[in-house]
Specification:
This protein is α+β, with helices and mostly antiparallel strands. It has a single domain, classed as Alpha-Beta Complex (Cyclic Phosphodiesterase, Chain: A). About 25% of the residues lie in helices and about 40% in strands. It has 4 helices and 9 strands, in the order βαββαββαβαβββ. A 5-stranded antiparallel beta sheet has the order 2-6-5-4-7. Strands 3-1-8-9 form a 4-stranded antiparallel beta sheet, with helices on one face. α2 packs antiparallel against α3. The longest helix is centred in the first third of the chain and has 15 residues. The termini are far apart.
């Protein structure tokens, strides 16, 4: 048996709430025939690595590798900003997401370390550049992409909040009619374990 698995950073409740409010402000611009899958606020996260279907026998190796990497990266802060339409122009609107900025580069370092560790377990490296973001909605079809972009445009640059990254979570995902259900498999603390004399 296998499970759809990904590695992510969670966000705090205040950021979830504010992102949910900004996401909901777009909804009045959605047309009756539009098909958009809105992500539930409890599922907001920054994906570090999507692994796809991972056999149960390999899941322990993944969790141990994630814990090893997490122990080498100190906790850090990242900022969540507004809403972006992706791509920003053209008829083919695919997503709405919130930008994530990390001035110290620790998020990029964490991503690179996870890529290396997962490659060692046989998972291919990501071919696209790392886009630091939180997915808010996935677009299947919209009749008027530009109206939705306009609705989102006023919420693109404002800060939603700062998140303290203190752990990395390995999630398994189950697709249901009501949306995806994410189950944490392991939560790996960032930084070395405190020394206990």
């Amino acid at each position: 048996m296998s499970h759809r698995t990904f590695i992510a950073l969670d966000v705090n409740d205040a950021v979830r709430r504010r992102l949910g409010e900004r996401r909901d402000a777009i909804r009045p611009a959605v047309g009756r025939s539009d098909k958009i899958n809105w992500v539930s606020p409890e599922n907001f996260h920054v994906t570090l690595k999507f692994l796809g279907d991972v056999p149960d026998a390999m899941l322990l190796d993944v969790c141990q590798a994630v814990q090893s990497v997490a122990g080498r990266i100190e906790p850090f802060d990242f900022t969540v900003r507004g809403i972006q339409a992706v791509p920003p122009a053209g008829r083919n609107l695919r997503m709405f997401w919130a930008d994530v900025t990390d001035p110290d580069g620790k998020l990029v370092n964490l991503f690179a370390a996870m890529e290396e560790a997962m490659e060692g377990l046989g998972f291919p490296r990501e071919t696209r550049p790392f886009a630091q973001h939180i997915t808010l909605a996935r677009v299947k079809y919209v009749r008027d992409a530009e109206s939705l972009r306009v609705a989102a445009s006023g919420r693109g640059s404002e800060s939603v909040g700062v998140v303290r990254a203190e752990q990395v979570t390995v999630y398994t995902s189950q697709l249901t009619q009501g949306g995806s259900i994410y189950t944490p498999t392991v939560k790996a603390r960032l930084g070395p374990l405190p020394h206990i004399p």
